[in-house]
Amino acid sequence: MAPLEPWEKVLVDVKFLESEHAKQDCIECHGGVQSPEKDAAHAGLIANPDQGEGSVCTVCHAEQAATFATSLHATQQGYWTVLDARSVPENHPALETMFGNHCASCHTTCSDCHISQPESVGGGLFSGHLFEKTSPMTRSCTACHGSRVGNEYLGKYEGFPGDVHFREARMSCVKCHSGADLHGVTPEGVDPQTIDHRYAGPQSPTCESCHPQVVDVQAAQESGNEMHAVHSQNLSCQVCHSVTYSSCDGCHVAVSETSGNPFFETEATYPTFLIGVNSRQSDDRPHSYVPVRHVPISPDSFAFYGEDLLPNFNALPTWAYATPHNIQLSTPQNQSCESCHANPDLFLTADKVNPDELEANQAVIVQQLPPDLTVAGKPQPADHVGRAVCVDCHETGVAEATIFPENHAGRSDAACHYCHLAPQP
């Protein structure tokens, strides 16, 4: 996104003067006084009248403002949920100073979505102060959520296509993330105070909202999609339909000795695709396995602001539950059973974790790979793809060698894996 020229940031388009919002004069929202002298006119100017309890937006949009006040976009509670878990109360003052310098600029207001680009990316009016009911995706949504979500969704990582929903359907963020979601409206019966992280509470949106057939075992079987019939209950959709995404290591924050400005830097950013155990398993997120990505946190990330500010660093994984926005119909791992089963490259095993982070990641490390789906070293027949229990079709105890060899007569093990396949996880 190219930066705006200074005049573009403040230019008020004549169309705005004909709009509903222009029925109020500038002073009603921005303060100041009527004067031909610039300095006098700007006395008491309120640059962002949409912030705080006195937000002028609440005059006409009280319902949206009321729910937005408790949304994660407004409170940034998701950050504090993680910081609280890794720190202790006595460290909060130092962390609050850090947060104010480096994180608080991501706080979102009404204007950041409907009038202007967020300050964190340079600010500037979208369309000459015209109010956009639907946020422009690249100048609002991915302006803030660009380094991961935006780059993945738009296909900005060389060698990896954009998300199929954007590449083929040209869907913007709000096609899935509705205005109600973004304004902090919680489902009926859910207390908004309990939504303290973006993965807290019911999933919204969900893939099955548009693709209900993928979680209906009978529908999957009737359509011939054995993969969905077998795996839809224990694998998140992204396990099979996501492709390579980015992970980051060791973000550190500080204040420049020369300019006095706060800054941050990460040790590394690199491509990954790894399947881990779902550490957030619940009724809302029941899957056993999900993609995980490394988040840029380390025990000394905030050392500039004090010693040992994260004494409970190991309370949360550094390889975190992820929902990459780069969905594809066909991916390397869903081409066949053998593409995934017994393929160590796809799974977060202990050897892929920094030794210093092994304790933190015990909940997400895959201890045992899914079994090799071969029998006596040979792949199963084509019509057996996705099936894992032999005795579902082959009755046990049948002496006829056409069904079981002689030395199998009388066996009644529920899973032939005990002899022929690696143990199931």
Give the number of domains.
4
Instruction: Decide which structural class fits the backbone.
Output: alpha+beta
Average pLDDT taken over every residue = 86
Order of adjacent strands in the largest pleated sheet: 5-6-7
Judging from the principal axes of the Cα atoms, what is the shape?
Answer: globular
Oligomerization status of the protein chains: single chain
Enumerate the spans where pLDDT stays under 50 for 5 or more consecutive residues: 396-402, 421-425
What profile does the largest beta sheet have? 3 strands, antiparallel
How many helical elements? Answer: 17
How many β strands by DSSP? 9
Task: Tell me roughly what share of residues is in helical segments.
Answer: 10-25%
Question: Approximately what portion of the residues adopt beta-strand conformation?
Answer: 5-15%
First and last CA, distance? 46 Å
Q: What is the helix/strand order? A: HHHHHHHHHHHHHHHEEEEEEEHEEH
Instruction: Return Rg in Å.
Output: 27 Å
